[in-house]
Prior knowledge:
Strand order of the largest sheet: 6-7-8-9-16-13-12-11
CATH class of the domain at 9-312: Mainly Beta
CATH architecture of the domain at 9-312: Distorted Sandwich
Oligomer: single chain
Largest sheet: 8 strands, antiparallel
Amino acid sequence: MxxxxxxxxxxxxxxxxxxGTVSLPAEELSALQKLRAPAYPLIVHDxxxxxxxxxxxxxxxxxTHWTGSPQPITGIITVDGGKPQxxxxxxxxxxxxMNQISVKVTPTQTICQFADGQIVLTLRFTSPMLPEDIDLLxxxxxxxxxxxxxxxxxxxxxxxxxxxxxxIAVNTADQDVVEKTIDGIPGLAVLQVGHKEQPVLEKKGDxxxxxxxxxxxxxxxxxxxxxxxxxxSGDREKAKTAPLxxxxxxxxxxxxxxxxxxxxxxxxxxxxxxxFGKDLAPxxxxxxxxxxxxxxQGAERYDEIMRKCRRFDEELVRDLTGAGGWKYAELCALVxxxxxxxxxxxxxxxxxxxMFSKENFSNGCIGTVDVLYPHTPFLLLxxxxxxxxxxxxxxxxxxxxxxxYDYAPHDLGTYPHAAGQVxxxxxxxxxxxxxxxxxxxxxxxxxAALAKTEGNADFSLPYWNTLTKWADYLVExxxxxxxxxxxxxxxxxxxxxxxxxxxxxxxxxAYAELCERLGKTEDAKKYRAIAEDYARKWLKDxxxxxxxxxxxxxxxxxxxxxxxxxxxxLETHLFPVSLAEQxxxxxxxxxxxxxxxxxxxxDNSLIDWALWSMTSAKTPHDFETLFNPIYDYVNETPxxxxxxxxxxxTNARRRxxxxxxxxxxxxxxxxxxxxxxxxxxxxxxxxx
Length: 688
């Protein structure tokens, strides 16, 4: 059922205002978005090129990398030669801040509006992550559009000064940088900064930033626009004493009609991922495009790209609202860029896109299967090709001599080095430390979901022996798992976990579906029969009073059964509908102020698991009853970081993690509407 909320209608009016055809009063603009983001995405492309504002207003705090490390970009406005005011950043402290009257986050844009009684100024940060165009999606270029309109009936002249701290190009501020002006790009003025030593792909780990490649600041080469390196005094840290990159934009004759100009922020890392000894280039570079071409094409395609982003945002928000309500739409819009931004798209030797996730503020692993699994719904909807690009490196590794086990790997290494699994690989680690049931079930479910998306299982054929080995492992070890970890490894080992058993059963059922699609009828019957037998047994062994248990041998306990959602999405129908209904009723009884805890042991929740658990709700009312506390957590958490997926349900505090791609799992509700799923998949070039 499509549900409309009075706050949604102004969204479309806002789109007209953004295009410059209407100017809305401040009181109407303030109603455009109710969600107060914990952090606002400004420039978000990959785990290294990712800049956010951690405050309510752009002038409250300095801009930072998602890790919280300062990467200051400041903006100052002067109207008619009057007193300068801050637009972005908390410095210079002696300048007052222009009044920010609204903020709106759409999937591809963050839009802030300011007013001072003379003009209304709109700043629009656009990272054009349009999934039907992987070339564009992979390009590390964000636009900052500055648009002014008179609000007092007079004509005004506006000067905007933007500065970028060169620390943006290094890991730490004690590293040397080299800055220069780049000439020869038609129509553009360009500044470049990079680490003097260029240690390409030398570092690996979690809380680090890129210190190779080059950052670019670019503006239209007009007489009123200038770019320069501004000397400054600083402390002893080298990057902090280097000149600032400055762009000055003059917007003349600002009257009743909006007048605008734009800047471009880009980062060319030249080489992105060290993949089993080979350094892979970013995908956008695969056909010889370089930084100069990136900037030139970015400028030439500006109008086209902005139109596409507006259309995409409007339609996606409308569809999200229909699927889950206006609060659901706002949350999904907020995490859209975060999901893409925790991944990197690189080019394989044959030009195929490989996509590698990073476990941000978790353990820094690259290509983690139980990170891919939560954001699989996002990729199933928007880019099955990039889902394949995430799976293939894992499958190749699993079939190599480097992986000796009969179950699926957990990860490919430590970002950005994909050199082989590091998690649970210590000398004294046993099988259980490597999450064998978890990852084998995850891989089979993901590949079966991909087959449903494409209408065939052709992707699985080259890896069939490996998939069969994993299915057989689940048959042998999956029903009643020994002392293993699941993806909620922060809660430790536990034997006989019902939710892990549930995943194994669905993994076996998923393998049976793949067999059926490939015409392997007898195998399909065999594995389907095993899955059905296990499911009947599970319903008996896991049952407690009014819910199912956390572990088979622990009466009186309970847990989320988030894996159950795939039984419906894959249409395996191994479990009765009454099971989901029972669980939903129980969740409503035990959820906390800010959402459903993972299980009866804790007051912690995981946002992706919570959304999957509630997606089986039959009525909008039940879904909203369980979803609204999650929305409140994001809206009210005092921890100002990109959305954390691990949090306390009692006080909305962040428990751990931030800026991870698993938040893409909230898009799973869209997969329950087959027409919506088909619509977006068709746009990705797959016709079912």
